[in-house]
Specification:
By secondary structure, this protein is mainly α. Helix content is 65%, strand content 0%.
């Protein structure tokens, strides 16, 4: 099984989430308050230290006021065409 953490697709996901947070005018702390979690969790997600699943992506997107589909499109564009599972 190929690793996805630190892959170009995973980096695209992190970048998309950071961009969405900044576009929403939120700090990591403010986003964490919306998610009812610690700021350190947001930092670990954005830095790529923690992977998220599709349900978490939806929750994050909602908290950011972002379109989860658009975030996924950015990940798709950033993922190598020959990336294995």
């Amino acid at each position: 099984m190929a690793k996805t953490i630190r892959s170009s697709g995973h980096e695209a996901l992190c970048r998309a989430l950071i961009d969405a947070r900044q576009a929403a005018g939120l700090t990591q702390t403010e986003l964490a308050q919306r998610l009812r979690c610690h700021q350190s969790l947001v930092a670990r997600i954005e830095s790529g230290e923690r992977r998220i699943d599709v349900v978490e992506l939806v929750v994050l997107s909602r908290a950011l006021g972002a379109d989860a589909g658009e975030v996924l499109r950015q990940v798709e564009m950033g993922t190598e065409p020959d990336h294995r599972v």
